[in-house]
Specification:
By secondary structure, this protein is α/β, with parallel strands linked by helices. Strand 16 and strand 17 form a beta hairpin.
């Protein structure tokens, strides 16, 4: 029996070592990358107002060929539940008619207060044109210059159609560290893939899919050109290709969201504007039920660009407290980023005052909740 216990112990230790060897563990076990959350005197909210967590809706494959009815149904659901969405758009168009169609779809999205982000350039590319259906994921295996060309061409097309492009998602998650370097160089503020960076040996395999569901907070990726925010996504629960998923897994989606909510995390839902996903009635019923569940909690549901601006500002916020007859809470935003709706929970019994960059912005006494709009 002792020998068996020893073998089990060694096996467990080996599995743990394998896991740590294959992933950058700090991205799964660390808290949010903010400078301050709370001390004995004050607690500063992670998100605007009274929000306890964040829900980000994203839909891939908006294009010139997107079905009007499908897009209308999705936009109606988002409006019904008061959720803003981010639509990752395939820029490539063939001819004036396609360009006009894409322009119309983009305008419909923007007119409802949602965001248009970039989804590669063509989504797929032909590897051997003489073999039918033998394609390749767009960015996989491409050199630096070709990737740069595709990113630039796609962004130029979307911007010519009045979209302000701040985010990027690689088709089929075919990004690499080179892709990230290009995106930062080209001014993208965030990247949202299922594949995460830096990757370990097997983090992009389905075996560790559970790992992707445990990254509660986005994190920054830096290169010599600057930095961007990495927003990991949760998988498309409505996708039904080849009967791999036989039904929208509403129970799993709600359960995973609840776990994020308990950790005060950022839950990013991945969906597709595709006949095998949201266009199906059951996919839309799934989305309706999930959005009802999510918005029943204290969540903030912005576009991904809005969240990125907030997160960058919140992570740069400095907070210092001192007691000298009264509590003095000193806030500073050295990067000049605005924070609209910052929530401070005062835990001190006596008088307090709040300074922002040396200027008094609030004063009071006793336990209190204060909401501030800090200018940039």
């Amino acid at each position: 029996m002792p020998v068996l216990n020893l073998l089990l112990l060694l096996l467990s230790a080996g599995l743990l070592a394998l896991l740590l060897w294959n992933i950058e563990a700090r991205y799964y076990i660390e808290g949010p990358c903010v400078r301050f959350t709370e001390d004995r005197y004050v607690k500063v909210g992670l998100y605007p107002g009274d929000a306890e967590a964040v829900f980000l809706f994203s839909a891939d494959d908006l294009s010139a060929d997107t079905d009007d009815r499908c897009l209308s149904q999705v936009l109606s659901l988002l409006e019904k539940h008061g959720v803003k969405g981010t639509f990752f758009t395939i820029p490539r168009v063939n001819g004036d008619e396609a360009a006009a169609s894409l322009a119309k779809q983009i305008q419909r999205v923007l007119s409802k207060g949602h965001e248009v982000a970039q989804h590669g350039f063509s989504h797929r590319r032909r590897r051997h044109a003489w073999i039918p259906f033998f394609g390749s994921y767009e960015f996989r295996g491409l050199g630096y210059e070709e990737q740069l060309k595709r990113v630039r061409m796609g962004k130029e097309i979307l911007e010519s159609l009045n979209a302000t492009v701040q985010g990027f998602r690689t088709p089929h998650f075919s990004s690499s560290p080179a892709t990230l370097d290009i995106l930062i160089k080209e001014g993208f503020q965030y990247v949202s893939d299922v594949r995460i960076h830096p990757e370990g040996k097997i983090t992009n395999k389905r075996l560790l899919g559970v790992v992707y569901g445990s990254i509660y907070y986005p994190y920054f990726w830096e290169t010599g050109h600057g930095r961007c925010l990495i927003i990991p996504t949760n998988g498309d629960y409505t996708w039904n290709i080849n009967r791999v998923i036989r039904r929208p897994d509403l129970f799993l989606a709600k359960k995973r969201f609840n776990r994020y909510y308990e950790h005060r995390g950022v839950f990013c839902l991945l969906t597709h504007l595709h006949p095998l996903a949201l266009e199906k009635d059951r996919g839309l019923r799934f989305l309706d039920s999930l959005l009802h569940h999510v918005t029943g909690e204290d969540v903030w549901a912005p576009t991904m660009a809005e969240f990125t601006r907030w997160w960058a500002a919140r992570c740069s916020l400095h907070v210092k407290t001192e007691i000298d007859g009264e509590l003095c809470i000193m806030l500073s935003t050295p990067d000049g980023k605005a924070l609209d709706g910052l929530r401070l929970e005062i835990k001190h019994q006596g008088p307090y005052r709040i300074l922002h960059n040396g200027k008094e912005v609030a004063r009071g006494a006793g336990e209190d909740v204060v909401h501030l709009s800090l200018p940039g």
